[in-house]
Structures are given as structure tokens and as C-alpha cells.
């Protein structure tokens, strides 16, 4: 390419993106190809080939995270961010080995009686230096690296083991990530976990977001059918945030709808949110499904969704997610208050 400046490199990248983005015919089919480009300039971003390639790769990683069809110029902050990511991944692998992860439980209560009927298992990472790391920081990385399969299996096993010691009237809900759901061995993993822990299948609920189902509907139906055959319950999580939720309810074997917290935030004052929540609860009842309202944080919100006859309530108004021993104490306190 000869000697080029930043402006020339950007112009070349734009031209490449536009050229590759044009659809073309392949065996009679119209094909679209996307491209992501990372750029490092010599001597600005390094003088050795290895250094330039590494820095271009840092830039490429950033643009790939933002979606195909663009380019990114390297800047030093990208290297710092990548090094932090590498350190976090190494820490995560070590954490899985030494047992730094723990499962917290957020209670779900019967909207009418206030009795705990289930608990959602939520993974937390207690880092020896950084303290409690929120899932938003490590779950995406676990999915990118494939560590989510190991971590997810550990969460499932731990949740089932601990839930087996609770009252038989309380279910445990476990989230499945898209990476876990694409694992062909998922149903076998769930079956083996239930057998190993002794938890009744009917007390396990698997929560699946709409995004999990977008890739391949036929495969999704096959996997959900296998899971349902085990006797576990299936819940559509974050209901209402996507475009196809209604068609998924009709086609897939869900037994519960979890209404997304975005519809609850403005309750009960916002009339549109109120109408949507009422409509979803009514629809769920007509389909024979239970409904859980997530993100209930005030007494007013609780009163509204209870009056609307939802099945369960979950949120900080009831309780924050609790470590297992605190959750057991919470259950004891609820019994004493009854």
C-alpha cells in the first residue's frame, strides 16, 4: 500500500467495507458478507510487525464487539482494555478452580398470600481483591470465552443441591445463557444434575430469554421439547422486550411468563405501562400460564400487580438476592411472621 496517513487508511477502510458489503450471487442465492477492520499505523502504533499486528487485533476486537460493517483505529486505551480483559479471564478461570463464585437467591412470592413459592438463582463472584464483582462485568466475557458452559453447569448443580434441602413447595429458577442453550448436551446435563442432586424435576425452572430463540427456531423447539420431557418448567424471561414474544408463546412449550422490569418501573402512575402489564397477565391466564412480575420495588407497584392478579412477584420490595444462608434465614422469618 506504500506510505499512507491516518486519513488515507480511513478512506481505504471505508472503501473496503463498502466493497465487501455489496451482495453477490453464489449458486443462484443472494449472499451478504459483513466485514470488520482493525487498523494500526507505523510508526505511530508500533515499529515491529508483531506489535502492529497485535495492536490491529486490539482495534479489530473493539469493532467486532460493536457489530460488523465498520473499522477502528488503534489507540493506547484499547491495549489497556484488552490487557484488563485478559487478566479478568485468567482470574475467572482461577475462580472456577478455587471456588470464588457463589449463588445468591432472590425470592419469588405468591402475589396474593406473600408466601415464598420459588427463588431465582443468581451467580456472584467474590474476588479476593476487587470484592463482589457484578455479573454484568463477567458474564459477557464468560460467554465469549466459552467459560459459561463450566460456570453455568456449576450454578445449575449448586442451585439444585441447595434447593434439595428446602421445603418441597419451593422451586428454584436457573437462567440459561444463549451459549448454554446452543450446547447439544444441555438436556443431558440437566438430567444428570437432577439425578446427582436428588432434586425433583418439577421443582426446577429454567429461564430462557427471547434472544436465545432467534437463531434457529426448529432447533429451539427440539431443545425445549427435550427439556420439557424431563419434567422441568420453562419460563420465558424478560417477556415483552422483543418483537416475537407472542409467536414464541404459541409455538414453544413455556409454562410461565416473566414480565420484564421495564414495564414495571413506572407503575402504577403510567397508564400505558399499566395497560401492558394487565394485558400480559390476562393473556397468560388465558393460555394457562403463570405470570411473574419482575423488578417490583415499591409497595404501590406490589399492590397494583397483585390487584391485576399476577401469580408471583419478584423484586427488591420483597427482597434483594441473598446468599444461601441468608435466604434460609429469610424463609425462617417468613414462617415466623405467618
Question: Which short descriptors sum up this protein?
Answer:
338 residues, alpha/beta, Alpha-Beta Plaits, TIM Barrel, 2 domains, 8-stranded mixed barrel, two-stranded antiparallel sheet, 47% helix, globular
Question: What's the end-to-end separation, in Å?
Answer: 77 Å
Strand-residue fraction? Answer: 15-25%
Task: Tell me what the CATH architecture of the largest domain is.
Answer: Alpha-Beta Barrel
- Count of DSSP helices? 12
Question: How much helicity do the residues have?
Answer: 40-55%
SSE ordering = HEEEHEHEEEHHEHHEHEHEHEHEEH
How is this structure best described in words?
With 338 residues, the protein is of the alpha/beta class. The protein has an eight-stranded mixed barrel, surrounded by six helices. It contains twelve helices and 14 strands. The chain folds into two domains: 6-74, Alpha-Beta Plaits, CATH 3.30.70.270; 88-337, TIM Barrel, CATH 3.20.20.450. The protein starts with 5 loop residues before the first helix and ends with a helix. It is 47% helix and 21% strand. The mean pLDDT is 89.
What is the secondary structure topology, with strand pairs?
Elements lengths: L5 H16 L2 E3 L2 E3 L4 E4 L9 H17 L4 E4 L2 H23 L2 E10 L5 E12 L3 E3 L1 H11 L1 H17 L7 E5 L2 H4 L4 H12 L6 E6 L7 H13 L3 E7 L5 H7 L4 E4 L11 H16 L3 E4 L5 H9 L4 E3 L7 E2 H14 L1
Parallel strand pairs: 3-4, 6-8, 8-9, 9-10, 10-11, 11-12, 12-13
Antiparallel strand pairs: 1-2, 5-6, 5-13, 5-14, 6-7
Amino acid at each position: 500500500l506504500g506510505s499512507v496517513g491516518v486519513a488515507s487508511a480511513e478512506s481505504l477502510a471505508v472503501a473496503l467495507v463498502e466493497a465487501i458489503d455489496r451482495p453477490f450471487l453464489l449458486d443462484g442465492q443472494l449472499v451478504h458478507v459483513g466485514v470488520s477492520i482493525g487498523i494500526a499505523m507505523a510508526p505511530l502504533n508500533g515499529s515491529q510487525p508483531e506489535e502492529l499486528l497485535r495492536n490491529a487485533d486490539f482495534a479489530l476486537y473493539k469493532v467486532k464487539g460493536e457489530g460488523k460493517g465498520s473499522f477502528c483505529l488503534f489507540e493506547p486505551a484499547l491495549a489497556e482494555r484488552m490487557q484488563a480483559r485478559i487478566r479478568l479471564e485468567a482470574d475467572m478461570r482461577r475462580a472456577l478452580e478455587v471456588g470464588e463464585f457463589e449463588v445468591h437467591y432472590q425470592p419469588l412470592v405468591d402475589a396474593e398470600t406473600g408466601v415464598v413459592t420459588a427463588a431465582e438463582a443468581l451467580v456472584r463472584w467474590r474476588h479476593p481483591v476487587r470484592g463482589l464483582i457484578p455479573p454484568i462485568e463477567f458474564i459477557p466475557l464468560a460467554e465469549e470465552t466459552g467459560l459459561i458452559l463450566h460456570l453455568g453447569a456449576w450454578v445449575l448443580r449448586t442451585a439444585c443441591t441447595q434447593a434439595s434441602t428446602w421445603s418441597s413447595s419451593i422451586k428454584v429458577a436457573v437462567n440459561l445463557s444463549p451459549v448454554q442453550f446452543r450446547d447439544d448436551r444441555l438436556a443431558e446435563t440437566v438430567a444428570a444434575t437432577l439425578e446427582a442432586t436428588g432434586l425433583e424435576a418439577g421443582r426446577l425452572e429454567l429461564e430462557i430469554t427471547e434472544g436465545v430463540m432467534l437463531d434457529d427456531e426448529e432447533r429451539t423447539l427440539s431443545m425445549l421439547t427435550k427439556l420439557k420431557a424431563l419434567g422441568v418448567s420453562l419460563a420465558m424471561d424478560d417477556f415483552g422486550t422483543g418483537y416475537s414474544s407472542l409467536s414464541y408463546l404459541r409455538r414453544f412449550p413455556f409454562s410461565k411468563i416473566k414480565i420484564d422490569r421495564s414495564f414495571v418501573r413506572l407503575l402504577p402512575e403510567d397508564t400505558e405501562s399499566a395497560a401492558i402489564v394487565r394485558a400480559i397477565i390476562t393473556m397468560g391466564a388465558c393460555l394457562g400460564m403463570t405470570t411473574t412480575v419482575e423488578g417490583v420495588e415499591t409497595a404501590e407497584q406490589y399492590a397494583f400487580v397483585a390487584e391485576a392478579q399476577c401469580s408471583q412477584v419478584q423484586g427488591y420490595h420483597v427482597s434483594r438476592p441473598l446468599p444461601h444462608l441468608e435466604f434460609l434465614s429469610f424463609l425462617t422469618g417468613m414462617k415466623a411472621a405467618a
